[in-house]
Amino acid sequence: MQKEYSEKSRQYKILKNKKNVSLLRKYGNEIDWWVLIKRYKNSHLVDVLPGSVLNEILDISSELRTGYILKEEFLDITKHYKEMAVEEQLTKWISKCISKNIPEFVEAAGTISRWKEYIINSFLDERYSNGYTEGVNNKIKVIKRIAFGYKNFDLFRARILYIFNGKISGIKNNKNYSKIKK
């Protein structure tokens, strides 16, 4: 969207401002609407309410306003799924995205509709998460990156087991493992 405006224009500067972008990305219910924030206006630092800044941003383009509203509706579905029928709400949201014909949202709606069954299943039982597995995989990748390679897989495995368990288990007694203490 920034490409539509020249670098000297007011719209370009508003869209380029990182604080404005973070305000757009934030979920509306998590914004403290009555706390003043500092912004530059006419080369002076002034206190303004987030609502007025957001309206100034959204006044740039009707497509931007529509995209913001669609984003907020999607976040409402994900945050308040216990109070509403998720499948019905997602179906309505997907059809809204397609009818508004904003390319990014049409693509997102297509992806969500393809994975809809699995997305809905994720709302059924929130006790299940792959967060722990992702954390373990990340830690293993960090170990691998820090080590600059191992001579063999068994030493790499031993290092991972030691870091996660505090002990080495499953090591064979072999002269190649003389440096590893049990």
Description:
The protein has 182 residues and is mainly alpha-helical. It has 3 domains: 1-60, no CATH class; 62-128; 131-177, no CATH class. Helices cover 59% and strands 5% of the residues. It contains 9 helices and 2 strands, in the order H-H-E-E-H-H-H-H-H-H-H. The chain has helices spanning 10-16, 18-25, 50-58, 62-79, 86-100, 103-114, 116-124, 131-147, 153-165; strands at 37-41, 44-48. The chain has a two-stranded antiparallel ribbon with strand order 1-2. Strand 1 and strand 2 form a beta hairpin. Helix 4 (62-79) packs antiparallel against helix 5 (86-100). The chain is extended and about 65 Å long. The mean pLDDT is 84.
| Helix content class | 55-70%
Query: What's the gyration radius in Å?
Result: 25 Å
Q: What number is the mean pLDDT?
A: 84
Q: Report the sheet-strand fraction.
A: 5-15%
Q: Pairing-aware structural class of the strands and helices?
A: mainly alpha
CA(first)-CA(last) distance: 60 Å
Biggest beta-sheet profile: 2 strands, antiparallel
Number of helical regions: 9
Q: Write the element-wise H/E pattern from the N-terminal end onward.
A: HHEEHHHHHHH
Q: Which strand order do you get reading across the main beta sheet?
A: 1-2
Q: Uncertain runs with pLDDT below 50, 5 residues or more?
A: none
Number of strands: 2
**Structural domain tally:** 3
Q: What overall form do the CA principal axes indicate? A: extended
Search tags:
9 helices, mainly alpha, two-stranded antiparallel ribbon, 2 strands, 182 residues, 3 domains
